[in-house]
Amino acid sequence: MQRLQPVDAWKSLIGLESALSRTMEEHRISELPNYQNTVHRRGFIVSSLSAGVALGAGRLFGAEKASAKSEEYVLSGATLLSQAGNELDGSKVDIHVKDGAIFAIAASIEAPGVSRIDLSGTLVMPGFVDTHWHMWNTIARGIQSSAKGDFFATQKALAKTWTAEASGVGVRLALAEAVNSGITTVNNWAHNVRAREFADAELEAQLASGVRGRFSYGYPQDIAEDEVMDVDSLAATQKRLAELDNPLIHLGLCVRGPDRCEEKVWRAEWEAARSMKLPLTTHIASTAAKAANGSIRKLHQNGLLGPDIQLVHATHAKLDDFKLIADAGSPLSISPWTELEVGYGLPPLLEIAKSGVELGLSVDNMVLAGRADMFEVMKITADLAAGLATQMLPISLSKVVSWATIGGARGLQLGEQTGSLEVGKRADLIAVRTDRLNTSPVGSAEFMLTHSANPASVDFVMIDGKIHKQGGRLAKVDLPALLEESQTMISSLKKSAGL
Ligand SMILES: [Zn+2]
C-alpha cells in the first residue's frame, strides 16, 4: 500500500478554496430564505471553486464570466415538467434561480434588475441523472473489439498502457457530452485507477466541470482476483475532498464485488466502504453464470445491502432477488443499450418495476453505447418493457422519465438536492426544444422526451445555478480543443497497446 503523498494540484485547490471563502463573506447571506441555508452557502463555494479550477487548468471557456457576481436569473416562459407534482406542470412558468437554488416557480415572476432568460418554445425539467458511467474510456469510443479479441480483451489491452492524463481527457470528454445531452448529475465509475494519479486526474476533471456527481474510486482493470484495491489512496482522496468541502462532488467506491473477485477481497473492500462511510457500487448478476453464484441473496443475508450499496445490471436476477434489493433499500442501475451490445441480455424491466426497487438509468460507457443519450436510453427502456410484456405501455412513460431523473438522484442519495424542480432544491435543470421538426407537435411531454427528443433538442442546461449550455451551445467547454486532444490521445494509446 502506498503512503499518503501531498499532491501539488490538490494543495493549490485547497488554497484557492480559502481565498474563495473570504470572497464569499462579501456576498451572503442575510437575504437568503430560511430553507436549506447551508446548502445555499455551500453552493456558492463550489460554483466559484469550479470556475477557479477551470481557469487554472486553462481548459474551459466562460469560467470568468460564470464566476462574476450575477448568480441570479429568471428563466421565463418554458412549459414545466417538475417531476414533483407541481400544480403548474404543463403550464408556462417563470423560474427564479438565486445562489444556485430554485428560489421560486410561478406563472409570472417580476424581479427587477435580475437577468431574464427567455425559454419560450421549450419544456423545462430537471436535468438527467446518469447512475453508472465509466468515463475514463470515453476516448475509446467505438473500439468494441480488435485483434486482441472481444470487448473485454480489447479493453484490458488498452487499460494496461493507459495513462492518468488519458483518464483525465476521457472524463472531460464524457462530461462535455453529458452536459450537451442534458445530463447534469453523473456517477463516474472509475474502474481503471492504476495509481493515485489516475484518480486525481479523473477527480480534477469532475471538479473543474461544474457537473454534479459522485466519483466512484476504483481499481486497475487487470488487478488480480485475490488482490484488494488500494484502500490507502482512497482514504487520502477522501481526506482531500473533505478539505475541499465541494458540495457538487462526493466520493464513493466501485468494486468488483462477489461476482468478480475472491470472497476475502470483496468482503475487505465492502468493509472499507462501510468503515469510511462511503457509498459503494458493484456490477452484479450480469450473466446467467454470474447470477448462479447467488450473490444478491448472499449480500442480503449478510446485511451487506442498503441505500449505500448500488447494484449495477442484475440482468439475470429474478423477481425474488429484486425484492431483496428493494427491501434493503439498495438502488439499482441498468444500462439497457450496453447490456444488449455486450450480450448480457434483456433487462428484466417487468420484475424490476414490480419489485419497487429504486431504479436509475445509465449510459455505462461510450466504447459500446456510442453516445451519451438519455433520450434513447429512456426510449429503449420503455419499448423493451412493452416487448417483454407483449403489450403496450406496461410501464408508463412518466415512470421511465422519473427513473432518468428523480429515481437516479435518490439512488445516488442526492434526492434532496436534485432530480426534480422544487423550491429550495439546487437549480439543476434543462430546457428541451418543443418547436423543432422532431418534437413538434407535442402529444405529451413524456412521449416527446422518450420518443422524439435527442441531445440536439437540449437548448439550455443549468447546474447548481450556473449556465452550461445556452441557445444549444456549450458555454464552458472549448470543444474543438477537447476533440483534438481526445483524438491525439487515443491514437497514441492504441499504438502503445498494439491495436
Ligand atoms: Zn459498468
From TrEMBL:
Residues 123-467 form the Amidohydrolase-related domain. SUPFAM superfamilies: Composite domain of metallo-dependent hydrolases (SSF51338), Metallo-dependent hydrolases (SSF51556). One of its GO terms (molecular function) is hydrolase activity, acting on carbon-nitrogen (but not peptide) bonds. InterPro entries: Amidohydro-rel, Metal-dep_hydrolase_composite, Metal_Hydrolase, MTA/SAH_deaminase. Transmembrane segments: none annotated. It holds the Pfam family Amidohydro_1. This is Amidohydrolase family protein. It comes from Luteolibacter pohnpeiensis. The lineage of its organism: Bacteria, Pseudomonadati, Verrucomicrobiota, Verrucomicrobiia, Verrucomicrobiales.
